[in-house]
Specification:
The complex is a heterodimer. By secondary structure, chain A is mostly helical. Chain A contains twelve helices and no strands. Chain B has a four-stranded antiparallel β-sheet. In chain B, strand 2 and strand 3 form a beta hairpin. The model of chain B has no long low-confidence stretch (mean pLDDT about 85). The chains are: A mainly alpha, B alpha+beta.
């Protein structure tokens, strides 16, 4: 257990270094953007000149590029993430709720994906080359080729025709008057379309991988041995085959998370889900430098956390993986 | 006496096995048709992509008539004009007295009708531009951008992956850390952040180039990692040792002996990258950060559909998405077919 913690700590350190590099990259990109962001801030009559002066001093905007970056990092570490031109508030005031919304959406689709893809994969493997398998493989091909944003538009269109599901957003207009249960139900109803769209492609790919793994394991000797000693088929499959077929999937969880976050951004925009992705779009459109930087960085942090969780989970489900005797 | 040995190289075997894969061949042909239509858009489309007529906003597809007073005649279309119904919805009413004959091969275009008649094969968009024409002109952008982006990513991936895998050690470590840095930012976020650095006053060609570069930058890292893995195992092989012993310089070994070996194996992942780039361009253009109107691309054609209201009374504006779907599906199937063909495990 100690070695696992040490391993995680090591990885965390290297990730923090990488995160610093990512922040430098985004900072450089923002710096390369033509037009000074604070010029337009100064021209905005709604913002007091004092505020602009204060921020100009805080971010050392008169300094050379590298010194600006160092000061940005120091400020960021102090929780001072910069000032949003578009929303007229410090960036840190907006990010929290947006992060939470993206997290809800990603977690729901992750749950949906794993609870559906694994059983479907097993089913397809056990009925190999029968009609179930064929239908599922056709579905996979179609789902992988369907652009998520397009599917979202189609579903929103269908919902507008049927009138059963809300057309985008996260809450109904009368959300504040609802009881706790009503609030949860309302959010869940708004979650249906984005979560389904987001999960569909990952269900398709994960189901194919699960099927492949299961078929691979079923060909192995220990399954033959288990069958030869007369174990019931259910025990052979669910106790001896399933676990081995499942383990490699956990490594995928990290990648899955990356794809999910990236996919979520576009779906959020189409379904007007108030998450990190739609925030970034607004920020990029309005050239809101600090908002762009912070949301990009935050998305990277989410990705790292996802990968780390997959790492820890892997050591937990697969006892063969140990970190102490690695070079 | 000479003995003729009939032997096939690995690549020849792979292509022979690919040709036997009927579905993959079908998809390859479908792609050929799509690219053909894009290349000959000037000929196939009745209008130029920016030929607009505001009197025909969201005009539904024009029905072509073949019979007139019970007689078979040359195809023609009726005049249609815009009116509003009781609740102020657009209605296009047919005027049976005014007819416009459909003409073929006139003015370098396959088909069309003379002004003031309008011929909308798949309906019109908000500005009364022919969607059919815009789809095929847009195909030029959407279909080329993926290929160009992948070409750049692949060159970057080959160079960096090849060098990292061949030299190993700290070169490998530092290059792979750079790759990891790019992979650590979720793709769409990286795309938007890169887009933020693009000046707003770019003209359409510059925008096109910048989108290609943005696409190339999001995917090169994973390609570099795949190629690095292959190079890592290839450099242990005897032919590399032989070349080294003969004093061949490293750069020649990488370019002449290692990289050519990786190309056939990475063909499948290249196809999948093309389809992911086509999707990425569509997403970027749809949210208004990619190719800008009036230049059409399949992505920005869909941006009207993001608001639900136009879709309700003009559902044909959803059509570009269908072509994205078909293209991506075909690239995926061809990619899968190539992987099966090059992978000896699957070979019969």
């Amino acid at each position: 257990m100690k070695s696992v913690i040490k391993h995680i700590f090591q990885r965390l350190c290297s990730k923090i270094l990488l995160l610093l590099a990512v922040s430098f990259l985004t900072f450089w990109l923002m710096h390369a953007t033509p037009g000074n962001f604070f010029d337009s801030l100064r021209l905005n009559p709604q913002i007091a000149q004092d505020t602009v002066d204060r921020y100009e001093k805080l971010y050392h905007l008169k300094d050379p590029f590298f010194s600006q970056y160092i000061h940005w990092v120091i400020n960021a570490l102090h929780g001072e993430w910069g000032y949003s031109l578009y929303y007229n508030v410090p960036v840190s005031h907006i990010l929290g709720s947006r992060l939470y919304n993206t997290f809800i959406l990603s977690m729901t689709s992750l749950l949906l994906t794993w609870s559906l893809a694994i059983p479907l994969g097993i089913w397809a493997a056990l009925r190999r080359n029968q009609w179930v398998d064929r239908v599922l493989s056709l579905f996979s091909f179609a789902a992988l080729a369907t652009p998520g944003f397009y599917l979202a538009v189609l579903l929103l269109y269908a919902a507008s025709r049927l009138g059963t599901l809300p057309l985008g957003g996260m809450h109904s207009p009368n959300y504040d008057d609802m009881s706790i249960v009503g609030k949860i139900g309302d959010t869940a109803l708004h979650l249906v379309i984005p979560a389904v769209v987001l999960s569909l492609a990952s269900i398709a790919s994960l189901q194919r991988i699960m099927r492949g793994n299961m078929l691979g394991v079923l060909r192995q000797q220990h399954i033959l041995a288990a069958r030869a000693k007369g174990l019931p088929e259910g025990v052979v499959i669910y106790r001896h085959a399933l676990r081995n077929a499942f383990n490699p999937l956990v490594t995928l969880l990290g990648y899955e998370f990356a794809a999910l976050l990236s996919g979520a951004a576009l779906i959020e925009i189409v379904c007007s889900w108030p998450g990190l992705g739609s925030l970034l779009l607004t920020a990029v459109r309005s050239k809101d430098v600090y908002l762009v930087m912070s949301s990009t960085l935050l998305a990277s942090v989410l990705l790292i956390i996802g990968n780390m969780m997959a790492d820890i989970l892997l050591t937990w489900v697969d006892p063969r993986i140990r970190y102490d005797n690695q070079n | 006496m000479t003995i003729k040995i009939n032997s096939n190289s690995r690549t020849q075997l792979a292509f022979a096995s690919f040709r036997r894969n009927r579905i993959a061949m079908l998809c390859l042909w479908a792609l050929a048709v799509l690219y053909g239509l894009a290349i000959f858009a000037d000929f196939v489309c009745p209008y130029a992509y920016d030929d607009e007529n505001r009197d025909f906003s969201y005009c539904p597809p024009t029905p072509v008539e073949f019979r007139d007073h019970g007689q078979w005649v040359n195809p023609f279309v009726f005049k249609r004009s815009l009116t509003f119904d009781a609740i102020h919805r657009r209605v296009y009413v047919i005027d049976p007295t005014q007819k416009y004959p459909l003409h073929f091969l006139k003015g370098g275009r396959l088909w069309g009708v003379d002004d003031p008649g309008r011929f909308y094969v798949w309906g019109a968009d908000a500005r009364g531009r022919d969607l059919f024409s815009r789809i095929w002109y847009g195909a030029r952008i959407s279909l080329s951008i993926g290929l160009l982006g992948v070409a750049i990513s692949f060159i970057l991936g080959l160079l960096i992956g090849g060098i990292a895998g061949y030299y190993g050690g700290w070169v490998d470590a530092s290059l792979m850390q750079t790759c990891e840095m790019f992979m650590m930012i979720p793709g769409f976020y990286l795309m938007l952040a890169l887009r933020a650095a693009v000046p707003e006053n770019f003209n359409s060609v510059q925008v096109y180039i910048s989108v290609v570069v943005i696409l190339a930058l999001i995917g090169w890292a994973s390609l570099a990692r795949i190629i690095r893995g292959m190079a890592l195992s290839l450099r242990e092989r005897d032919f590399v040792l032989a070349a080294k012993t003969l004093g061949v310089p490293d750069i020649v070994i990488i370019f002449k002996h290692i990289l050519p070996q990786t190309i056939s194996f990475s063909a499948a992942s290249l196809m999948l990258t093309v389809s992911s780039y086509i999707l990425a361009e569509a997403g970027l253009s749809m949210v208004g950060l990619g190719i800008q109107d009036p230049i059409p691309s399949w992505g920005n054609l869909l941006s009207d559909a993001m608001a639900i209201v136009p879709v309700i009374f003009a559902p044909w504006i959803l059509l570009p998405g269908l072509f994205i779907f078909i293209t991506v599906m075909c690239f995926n199937v061809v990619g899968d077919g190539l992987r099966d063909a090059f992978d000896p495990m699957f070979r019969d």
